[in-house]
Every structure is written in structure tokens, then in C-alpha cells.
Amino acid sequence: MVDDLYQETILDHSKRPRNHHSMEDANRKAEGYNPLCGDKLRLYLKIDDDIVQDASFEGSGCAISTASASLMTDSLKGKTREEALKLMEKFHDLLTTDTPASRDLGKLVVFCGVRDYPARVKCATLAWHTLKSALSNTGEPVTTE
Amino acid sequence: MTMAGSVTAAGIDVEKIREDFPVLKQTIHGKPLVYFDSAATAQKPFAVIDAIRKFHEVDCANIHRGVHELSQRSTAAYEETRSKARRFLNARNNSEIIFVRGTTEGINLVVSSWGRRNVREGDEIIISAMEHHSNIVPWQMLCEERSAKLRVIPMNDRGELILEEYEKLLNPRTRMVAFGHVSNALGTINPARQIIQMAHRAGALTLVDGAQAAPHMNIDVQALDSDFYTFSGHKVFGPTGIGVLHGKMRLLNAMPPYQGGGDMIRTVTFEKTTYNDLPYKFEAGTPNIAGGIGLGAALDYMTGIGLDKIAAYEHELLLYGTEALSKIPGLRLIGTAREKAAVLSFVIDGIHPHDIGTVLDRQGIAVRTGHHCAQPVMDWFHVPATTRASLAFYNTAAEIDALVAGLHKVKEVFG
Predict the structure, then answer these.
(1) Which residues pair with A20 in a beta bridge?
(2) Which CATH number is A55's domain given?
(3) Contact call for A5 and B358, based on CB within 8 A
(4) B176: distance to nearest CA of chain A, Å?
(5) For B266-320, what is each residue's pLDDT tens digit?
(6) Considering only CA atoms, which of B414, B415, B380 is closest in space to residue B131?
(7) So what's the pLDDT on residue A3?
(8) Contact A63 B355 (CB under 8 A)
(9) Across-strand partners of B174?
(10) Smallest Cα distance from B413 to chain A, Å
(11) Strand partners, B27
């Protein structure tokens, strides 16, 4: 049932998103946009010595995209750029393949239900697309389309 | 209000009608399908499915070019739809009925053919604040190309056009007023006759996007006096990829062809081509023959029930649905025009439409969530998206009750 998608952790993070604020001393920023649902997201990163010291976001969207941004920013802290990108790949695999979830995903594994809702994969990946843009620092807003 | 029994005050036997739509007899995620997305595309009755199947099984041939029996049969069936469409719109003449892929192509045909010939620098085109993207973007492209100005009739917070403001926009430079008869995102039924009269007084032509009107009400292009009127087959219970553009004959005759190719010509040499008469001048290439035949069956089906009965029954559903949804705490209807088709567009405090749509889907209820190809409408109401339940004559009051129960479940999950 629908509870597989909207697991407790997801509902919790959508109602009380963590790291939901702007960041004045961020040294990487990126914007993401999902034109299908109008969701907009601005991601802030503070990276020193190749390590994500802090991560936050602004914007509003559906429960899945808000919870995804909230949990993503939580799990990025302390990771190197390369580790962050690897995590992104594993997260993407979780949503789109049947392979067993990697242990590295930690709490992010709550998004496993999304794979049964193909129309909602883009909601869950918006924050991660935005992360990729922030790390590559192209400065171009990304869209899910 | 009471809607007991399957026969309603409007004289429609909805249970009997539902038997005609095979797609409705299924369960989705274990629940009976409640299809509330007819404004996106309407479901198809057996009459349409069978007509398309019969064409492919028995009569399949290209049209207008064979002396053999099959070609004559398919030509006759395809052209019969032209007569049906003429009667459906109460047009004067079959030559005024142009087959297109759908409303979008109907609008693009007028923009390309009439617009490129008649719109010059400094001219003005008027559209309305509640248009579908398909009645915005083609005009915007034309205005950019011609350095013309695009002006927009504003609306009030019920989602009704403000005609006093429209009057002020009209001036001798106005070439065209293009507007939706019924808004897909809000359900508003616009006062088409009045809008057209005002445009004509200012010397402008009119194009009516009838995509959302044709499934729900009687249309009379002579009474409206519209210059162009267009609608899509798939929204009137016919197949996708076929639609109709009606234009006044003197306008169509004066317009250059839209696309070049077979069927639209009379003679071709490398020096010069002469064009075919109306309506074929605008119909290059092999058309969607099966679609055209399916559309004919769809129009027969609708007129068989009666457009007045359809409109009356859907109005009952609209009143019932409006009252039922209004009782849900935190729900706000977007679009509350006094003249409205059976569209219930709404937002719920703190819950995103996509989450609403997903939870409803798991209960078998198909609604549309998003901007409904009308982003300016969403901006005007300061919402990123809405949830839209759009109804047809095969829907029931019991299905509206299911929607209400579904929305209570949504609130339970996200409350």
C-alpha cells in the first residue's frame, strides 16, 4: 500500500525538514527545478579540504522531494566530493533497479518504495541532480526534464 | 441533493452508459477505477473502438485516390465524419470543416496560415489569462516574429474574465481575439458570444479553443459567429491524433495552404502548383483515416445521448462535487466561476498535489496533478500546481463520494 512509499521517516522529514535554511558562508550553490510539478530547490554547500562541512536547502515541494533534500543534506556532511557522488549513484540505483540496497545508504534506504512509483522518481532525485550541479559548479540551474 | 438510482433528473441512465465504456470496468490497486481525468483525455465507448476495428479489418485503404471498392468505402466513411462534424458544430458547409491532429494543430494552422499573412508590426493579438499553453505559445511565436503585441484579458479571483478590462484592450490594431470556450484548469465557461461580438465591433477576428467545451455542451458556430473554432477528437470520446478546425469559408479561401504535399494540390509541375479547393487545401498527406472514422462514431455517440442532457447531468455532478469538496477542512477550490463545467480543481493546505495524486491513485482514483499546461493560471492563483478532478457523463455521485473518502485518507497520511 501507499505506506510503502510514505514511510514514517519520509513523512517526518517532509513535515519537519532538516537543514532547511539558507547558508551565508556557502561556497557552492545550485538550483534545481522540476517543471512538471513546479518544485524548486536551492542547495547550499560548504566544502573545505574536499569535505562537505555543511549542507542546507531552501524551497518547497512534495513530501518526497522535501524529505529527499532533507535526508540528503543530512547524509552529505563529512563526505568527500567523491564519496558524495558515489552515494548519489547508489541512491539512483535504489530508485531505479532491483539490486539490493547498499549499506552505505543508511537512512536513505527509506526511499526504496519509490521504485514502485515511476512517476515519483523525479521527485526523489531533484535534490541529487542539484547536488551534482553544485559539485560540478557549472552554475546552471538544473531541471529534471 | 439526492441522486439515488441510476436514472437522474437529467434523464441520463449512467449505469447503462458505463456499460459502453470497457475501460471503466477494472480495478486499480484492488479498487474500482474512478476516472476523473477526462479533461486530459476522455475514455472511449465500444462504438468508437468497434468503428476503428472495422475500418482496419474490413475497409482499410487510402482515401481520395483509388477507384477500387475499399478506397471508396474508406473515403465515404472518412468524409461522412466531415458531415457529422459540420452538424455537431452547426456549421454551414462541409468545406469549412478541416481535419487536423487536434486543437493544438488547429490553432497552429490559423497562426501559420492566417497569422503570417495578416499580422504586421504593431498589430495586436488578444488572448485570455486562463489559456492553455497551446493557445498562448503559437500566438507568442507569431508576435515575436512579426513584432506584434500580445495582450491578455485579466480574470477575477473566481476565475472569470473581466470583460470591462477586455473592452479597454480592444482597439483598431487588434487583429485577433483567441480564447478558450471552457478553461481546462478552472472549468470556467466563458461568455463566448459576447467576447466574439465585442471583438467584431472592434474589427477583429476570433478563434475559439473549444477543446474543453466540445465534450460538455451544444456548440453552434453560426450562433456564436466565431471565425475559427477548433476541438480535439480524443476529448470527445474519440481517438487521439484527430481533431477539427472550423473556419468561415471566405477566410479559409483567402488563406494560403498550411502544409504542402499530396491531396492538397490540383496540378503540380516544377514551375507551378495549383491548390485544391476547401477543405483539402489544408489537408496535405494521408490523414488519420482510422481516427477520422473513430471520431465520427464518437460524435454519433454523444449526439445519441444528447448534448443538452450531458450538460444538465454534468452540472448536477458539479454541484454535488462542489458541495462535497467544500466540506473538507483546508481544501480550497481553484476556479469558482458562476458558469462552470464539471472541473474541480483544488489545493489542500500543506499537502502537495503530487502526494495527493499518488495517495488517490492507490485508491483507484485517477486525477490530474500539476499545472495543467496553464502555468500563468497557477501563477495568478499563487499555487505551484493543483489537483484536478475532471468529470464526464459516465461519472457518478458515488464516485465523488469515493474521492471525498480518498481525500480524507490523504489527510490521514499527511495530517
Answers:
(1) A57
(2) 3.90.1010.10
(3) yes
(4) 30
(5) 999 999 999 999 999 999 999 999 999 999 999 999 999 999 999 999 999 999 9
(6) B380
(7) 78
(8) yes
(9) B124
(10) 8
(11) B32
Please give the pLDDT value at position A38: 74
Catalytic residue status for B143: no
What is the length of chain B?
A: 415
Q: Tell me what the mean pLDDT of segment B110-125 comes to.
A: 97
What total of structural domains would you count in chain A? 1
All residues of chain B having their beta carbon less than 8 Å from the beta carbon of residue A11 are: 413-414
| Domain ranges for chain B | 14-32+306-414, 49-304
Nearest residue on chain B to A38, judged by CA atoms?
Answer: B384
Cβ(B210)–Cβ(B262) below 8 Å: no
Q: What does the alpha-carbon distance between residue A68 and residue B73 come to, in Å, rounded to a whole number?
A: 58
Residues 6+ apart with CB under 8 A from A121: A95, A96, A114, A115
Contact residues on chain A for B358, CB-CB shorter than 8 A: 2, 5, 117, 119-120
Share of chain A above pLDDT 90, in %: 72
- Cell triple for residue B32? 474500482
Q: Which amino acid is at B99?
A: F
CATH of B49-304, one of 1.20.1090.10, 3.50.30.20, 3.30.70.580, 3.40.640.10: 3.40.640.10
What domain range is A62 assigned to?
Answer: 2-136
Of the candidates B351, B350, B310, B345, which has an alpha carbon nearest to the alpha carbon of residue B325?
B345
Distances (CA, A) of B114 to A19, A80, B1, B145, B394: 55, 60, 49, 14, 38
Number of Cβ atoms within 10 Å of the Cβ of A77: 14
Give the type of residue at A65.
Answer: S
Exactly one of B163, B373, B383, B404 is catalytic; which is it? Answer: B373
Whole-model pTM?
Answer: 0.93
CATH class of B14-32+306-414: alpha beta
User: Are B385 and A37 an interchain contact pair (Cβ–Cβ within 8 Å)?
Assistant: yes
Q: Which amino acid is at A67?
A: A
Confidence band (pLDDT; 50, 70, 90) for B160? very high
Q: Per-residue pLDDT for A95 more than 50?
A: yes
Name the residue with cell 476556479. Answer: B335
Cell numbers describing residue A100: 539490493
